[in-house]
Amino acid sequence: MAAGSGDAVLVTEPAAGVRLLTLNRPGVRNAMTGEMTAAWDKAIDAIADDRETRVLVVTGEGSSFCSGADLSWLDQGAAQDLTADRLRDRMLPFYRSWLRPRSLPFPVIAAVNGPAVGAGVCLALACDLRHASTDARFSTPFIYLGTHGGLGATWLLPEAIGVSRAREMLYTGREVAPEEALNWGLVTAVADENIVEYSVEVATRMAEAAPIALRLTKTGLEQAAAGLEAALQWEAVAQPITMTTADLHEGIQAKRQHRAPRFEGR
Length: 266
Known about the structure:
- By secondary structure, the protein is an alpha/beta fold.
- It is built from eleven helices and eight strands.
- It has two domains: 9-207, Alpha-Beta Complex (2-enoyl-CoA Hydratase, Chain A, domain 1), CATH 3.90.226.10; 211-256.
- The chain has a six-stranded mixed beta sheet with strand order 1-2-3-4-6-8, with helices on both faces. Strands 5-7 form a two-stranded parallel sheet.
- Helix 5 (153-161) packs across helix 6 (163-172).
- The mean pLDDT is 94.
- InterPro entries: ClpP/crotonase-like_dom_sf (IPR029045), Enoyl-CoA_hyd/isom_CS (IPR018376), Enoyl-CoA_hydra/iso (IPR001753), Enoyl-CoA_hydra_C (IPR014748).
- Pfam families: ECH_1 (PF00378).
Protein backbone atom coordinates (compact mmCIF):
# COMPACT_ATOMS: atom_id res chain seq x y z
CA MET A 1 0.00 0.00 0.00
CA ALA A 2 2.98 2.31 0.41
CA ALA A 3 3.09 5.24 -2.02
CA GLY A 4 6.12 6.91 -3.57
CA SER A 5 8.00 9.56 -1.62
CA GLY A 6 6.84 12.24 -4.07
CA ASP A 7 3.17 11.58 -3.35
CA ALA A 8 1.15 14.10 -1.33
CA VAL A 9 0.17 11.34 1.11
CA LEU A 10 2.26 8.35 2.15
CA VAL A 11 0.79 5.13 3.58
CA THR A 12 2.94 2.51 5.29
CA GLU A 13 2.45 -0.47 7.60
CA PRO A 14 4.76 0.02 10.62
CA ALA A 15 3.24 -2.89 12.56
CA ALA A 16 0.73 -5.68 12.05
CA GLY A 17 -2.75 -4.23 11.75
CA VAL A 18 -1.43 -0.64 11.94
CA ARG A 19 -1.42 1.80 9.04
CA LEU A 20 0.54 5.07 9.12
CA LEU A 21 -0.74 7.91 6.91
CA THR A 22 1.69 10.82 6.50
CA LEU A 23 0.71 14.17 4.99
CA ASN A 24 3.67 14.76 2.70
CA ARG A 25 3.87 18.37 1.61
CA PRO A 26 6.26 19.86 4.20
CA GLY A 27 7.08 22.76 1.87
CA VAL A 28 3.59 24.16 2.48
CA ARG A 29 3.42 22.82 6.06
CA ASN A 30 1.09 20.05 4.90
CA ALA A 31 -1.70 22.47 4.00
CA MET A 32 -4.98 21.02 2.76
CA THR A 33 -4.51 21.90 -0.90
CA GLY A 34 -6.65 20.44 -3.65
CA GLU A 35 -3.86 17.99 -4.45
CA MET A 36 -3.54 16.98 -0.80
CA THR A 37 -7.30 16.56 -0.41
CA ALA A 38 -7.54 14.28 -3.45
CA ALA A 39 -4.60 12.19 -2.24
CA TRP A 40 -6.08 12.03 1.26
CA ASP A 41 -9.42 10.74 -0.04
CA LYS A 42 -7.72 8.11 -2.19
CA ALA A 43 -5.58 6.93 0.74
CA ILE A 44 -8.52 6.80 3.16
CA ASP A 45 -10.52 4.80 0.62
CA ALA A 46 -7.72 2.23 0.34
CA ILE A 47 -7.22 2.00 4.11
CA ALA A 48 -10.96 1.65 4.75
CA ASP A 49 -11.16 -1.18 2.19
CA ASP A 50 -8.22 -3.03 3.74
CA ARG A 51 -9.74 -5.57 6.12
CA GLU A 52 -6.36 -6.01 7.82
CA THR A 53 -6.39 -2.43 9.12
CA ARG A 54 -7.16 -2.32 12.82
CA VAL A 55 -5.76 1.10 13.79
CA LEU A 56 -4.70 4.13 11.74
CA VAL A 57 -2.09 6.73 12.76
CA VAL A 58 -2.10 10.13 11.01
CA THR A 59 0.89 12.49 11.10
CA GLY A 60 2.67 15.16 9.08
CA GLU A 61 6.02 15.12 7.30
CA GLY A 62 8.59 17.70 8.36
CA SER A 63 8.14 20.17 11.19
CA SER A 64 4.36 20.69 10.91
CA PHE A 65 1.34 18.47 11.44
CA CYS A 66 -1.03 20.48 9.25
CA SER A 67 -1.31 24.23 8.63
CA GLY A 68 -4.98 23.98 7.75
CA ALA A 69 -6.99 24.75 4.65
CA ASP A 70 -5.26 26.30 1.67
CA LEU A 71 -7.12 29.55 0.97
CA SER A 72 -4.65 30.94 -1.57
CA TRP A 73 -7.14 30.33 -4.38
CA LEU A 74 -9.41 32.97 -2.81
CA ASP A 75 -6.63 35.55 -2.90
CA GLN A 76 -5.91 34.77 -6.55
CA GLY A 77 -9.36 35.81 -7.70
CA ALA A 78 -10.52 32.28 -8.46
CA ALA A 79 -13.57 32.82 -6.28
CA GLN A 80 -14.38 36.33 -7.48
CA ASP A 81 -17.55 35.26 -9.26
CA LEU A 82 -18.60 32.65 -6.71
CA THR A 83 -21.62 33.31 -4.55
CA ALA A 84 -21.85 32.29 -0.89
CA ASP A 85 -24.17 29.46 -1.96
CA ARG A 86 -21.65 28.13 -4.50
CA LEU A 87 -18.86 28.38 -1.96
CA ARG A 88 -21.00 26.37 0.47
CA ASP A 89 -21.31 23.64 -2.16
CA ARG A 90 -17.51 23.60 -2.38
CA MET A 91 -16.83 23.66 1.36
CA LEU A 92 -19.14 20.88 2.51
CA PRO A 93 -17.38 18.12 0.49
CA PHE A 94 -14.04 19.50 1.68
CA TYR A 95 -15.17 19.35 5.32
CA ARG A 96 -16.48 15.82 4.94
CA SER A 97 -13.28 14.60 3.29
CA TRP A 98 -11.04 15.71 6.14
CA LEU A 99 -13.44 14.57 8.86
CA ARG A 100 -13.44 10.99 7.54
CA PRO A 101 -11.43 9.63 10.51
CA ARG A 102 -14.60 10.18 12.52
CA SER A 103 -16.56 7.70 10.41
CA LEU A 104 -13.87 5.06 9.89
CA PRO A 105 -14.87 1.81 11.66
CA PHE A 106 -11.55 1.50 13.54
CA PRO A 107 -9.68 3.85 15.90
CA VAL A 108 -7.55 6.66 14.47
CA ILE A 109 -4.67 8.31 16.33
CA ALA A 110 -3.31 11.76 15.45
CA ALA A 111 0.46 11.92 16.03
CA VAL A 112 0.77 15.71 16.15
CA ASN A 113 4.44 16.25 15.36
CA GLY A 114 4.36 20.04 15.09
CA PRO A 115 1.98 22.99 14.73
CA ALA A 116 -1.66 22.23 13.95
CA VAL A 117 -3.43 25.36 12.76
CA GLY A 118 -7.09 26.03 12.00
CA ALA A 119 -8.53 23.12 10.07
CA GLY A 120 -5.41 21.17 11.05
CA VAL A 121 -6.67 21.24 14.64
CA CYS A 122 -10.03 19.96 13.41
CA LEU A 123 -8.31 17.09 11.59
CA ALA A 124 -6.61 16.12 14.86
CA LEU A 125 -9.94 16.40 16.69
CA ALA A 126 -11.59 14.13 14.12
CA CYS A 127 -9.24 11.38 15.30
CA ASP A 128 -10.12 9.23 18.30
CA LEU A 129 -6.91 9.97 20.19
CA ARG A 130 -4.32 12.75 19.90
CA HIS A 131 -0.68 12.49 20.92
CA ALA A 132 1.51 15.59 20.85
CA SER A 133 5.25 16.04 20.52
CA THR A 134 6.91 18.76 22.56
CA ASP A 135 7.08 20.79 19.33
CA ALA A 136 3.31 20.65 18.79
CA ARG A 137 1.22 23.81 18.98
CA PHE A 138 -2.54 24.20 18.52
CA SER A 139 -4.27 27.35 17.29
CA THR A 140 -7.55 28.26 15.59
CA PRO A 141 -7.00 31.82 14.32
CA PHE A 142 -9.89 31.75 11.85
CA ILE A 143 -11.30 35.17 12.75
CA TYR A 144 -7.83 36.75 12.51
CA LEU A 145 -7.82 35.71 8.86
CA GLY A 146 -11.24 37.31 8.45
CA THR A 147 -13.14 34.04 8.20
CA HIS A 148 -15.49 31.96 10.30
CA GLY A 149 -14.22 28.62 11.55
CA GLY A 150 -14.91 25.54 9.45
CA LEU A 151 -14.40 21.78 9.38
CA GLY A 152 -16.53 21.33 12.48
CA ALA A 153 -14.49 23.67 14.70
CA THR A 154 -17.52 24.98 16.59
CA TRP A 155 -18.57 21.43 17.51
CA LEU A 156 -15.31 19.51 17.76
CA LEU A 157 -13.55 21.96 20.06
CA PRO A 158 -16.33 22.15 22.69
CA GLU A 159 -16.69 18.37 22.56
CA ALA A 160 -13.00 17.92 23.36
CA ILE A 161 -12.22 20.75 25.77
CA GLY A 162 -15.51 22.30 26.86
CA VAL A 163 -17.30 25.44 25.75
CA SER A 164 -15.27 27.99 27.73
CA ARG A 165 -11.89 26.80 26.47
CA ALA A 166 -13.25 26.45 22.94
CA ARG A 167 -14.36 30.06 23.12
CA GLU A 168 -10.89 31.11 24.23
CA MET A 169 -9.21 29.29 21.35
CA LEU A 170 -11.64 30.61 18.75
CA TYR A 171 -11.87 34.17 20.09
CA THR A 172 -8.16 34.74 20.76
CA GLY A 173 -6.53 32.49 18.16
CA ARG A 174 -3.60 32.02 20.54
CA GLU A 175 -1.29 29.03 20.47
CA VAL A 176 -1.89 26.27 23.01
CA ALA A 177 1.31 24.45 24.01
CA PRO A 178 1.43 20.66 24.55
CA GLU A 179 1.25 20.60 28.36
CA GLU A 180 -1.71 22.98 28.39
CA ALA A 181 -3.34 20.94 25.64
CA LEU A 182 -2.88 17.85 27.82
CA ASN A 183 -4.42 19.57 30.85
CA TRP A 184 -7.38 20.66 28.73
CA GLY A 185 -7.98 17.23 27.21
CA LEU A 186 -7.13 18.48 23.73
CA VAL A 187 -4.51 15.69 23.61
CA THR A 188 -4.26 12.46 25.58
CA ALA A 189 -0.47 12.23 25.76
CA VAL A 190 2.68 14.32 25.31
CA ALA A 191 5.88 12.47 24.45
CA ASP A 192 9.46 13.70 24.47
CA GLU A 193 10.45 10.85 22.17
CA ASN A 194 9.59 10.50 18.48
CA ILE A 195 5.84 11.06 18.51
CA VAL A 196 5.17 8.78 15.54
CA GLU A 197 7.02 5.91 17.21
CA TYR A 198 5.09 6.56 20.42
CA SER A 199 1.75 6.58 18.58
CA VAL A 200 2.62 3.44 16.63
CA GLU A 201 3.42 1.67 19.92
CA VAL A 202 -0.01 2.62 21.29
CA ALA A 203 -1.66 1.64 17.99
CA THR A 204 0.13 -1.72 18.06
CA ARG A 205 -1.25 -2.43 21.51
CA MET A 206 -4.76 -1.49 20.33
CA ALA A 207 -4.38 -3.66 17.22
CA GLU A 208 -3.91 -6.67 19.50
CA ALA A 209 -7.51 -6.34 20.74
CA ALA A 210 -10.39 -8.34 19.30
CA PRO A 211 -11.11 -6.44 16.05
CA ILE A 212 -14.88 -6.93 15.99
CA ALA A 213 -15.18 -5.73 19.58
CA LEU A 214 -12.81 -2.82 18.85
CA ARG A 215 -14.85 -1.61 15.88
CA LEU A 216 -18.15 -1.97 17.73
CA THR A 217 -16.71 -0.02 20.68
CA LYS A 218 -15.88 2.92 18.42
CA THR A 219 -19.45 2.91 17.11
CA GLY A 220 -20.77 2.53 20.64
CA LEU A 221 -18.96 5.65 21.80
CA GLU A 222 -20.64 7.61 19.00
CA GLN A 223 -24.04 6.17 19.90
CA ALA A 224 -23.51 7.04 23.57
CA ALA A 225 -23.43 10.74 22.71
CA ALA A 226 -27.24 10.54 22.59
CA GLY A 227 -27.38 9.58 26.29
CA LEU A 228 -27.39 6.61 28.67
CA GLU A 229 -30.49 4.93 27.24
CA ALA A 230 -29.05 5.08 23.72
CA ALA A 231 -25.83 3.56 25.06
CA LEU A 232 -27.71 0.74 26.77
CA GLN A 233 -29.73 -0.02 23.67
CA TRP A 234 -26.57 -0.19 21.58
CA GLU A 235 -24.70 -2.34 24.11
CA ALA A 236 -27.65 -4.75 24.32
CA VAL A 237 -27.09 -5.45 20.60
CA ALA A 238 -23.30 -5.11 20.33
CA GLN A 239 -22.31 -7.20 23.33
CA PRO A 240 -24.37 -10.23 22.24
CA ILE A 241 -22.80 -9.96 18.79
CA THR A 242 -19.32 -10.27 20.30
CA MET A 243 -20.52 -13.15 22.48
CA THR A 244 -21.15 -15.21 19.34
CA THR A 245 -17.62 -14.78 17.96
CA ALA A 246 -14.68 -17.19 18.00
CA ASP A 247 -12.63 -14.30 19.35
CA LEU A 248 -14.58 -14.41 22.62
CA HIS A 249 -13.64 -18.05 23.17
CA GLU A 250 -10.04 -17.30 22.24
CA GLY A 251 -9.97 -14.46 24.77
CA ILE A 252 -11.33 -16.68 27.55
CA GLN A 253 -8.91 -19.49 26.71
CA ALA A 254 -5.95 -17.11 26.59
CA LYS A 255 -6.83 -15.71 30.00
CA ARG A 256 -7.09 -19.20 31.49
CA GLN A 257 -3.78 -20.21 29.93
CA HIS A 258 -2.02 -16.99 30.95
CA ARG A 259 -0.99 -16.13 27.39
CA ALA A 260 -1.62 -13.37 24.90
CA PRO A 261 -4.78 -13.91 22.83
CA ARG A 262 -4.57 -14.37 19.07
CA PHE A 263 -7.68 -12.71 17.69
CA GLU A 264 -8.66 -13.31 14.07
CA GLY A 265 -11.74 -11.11 13.78
CA ARG A 266 -14.30 -13.88 13.50
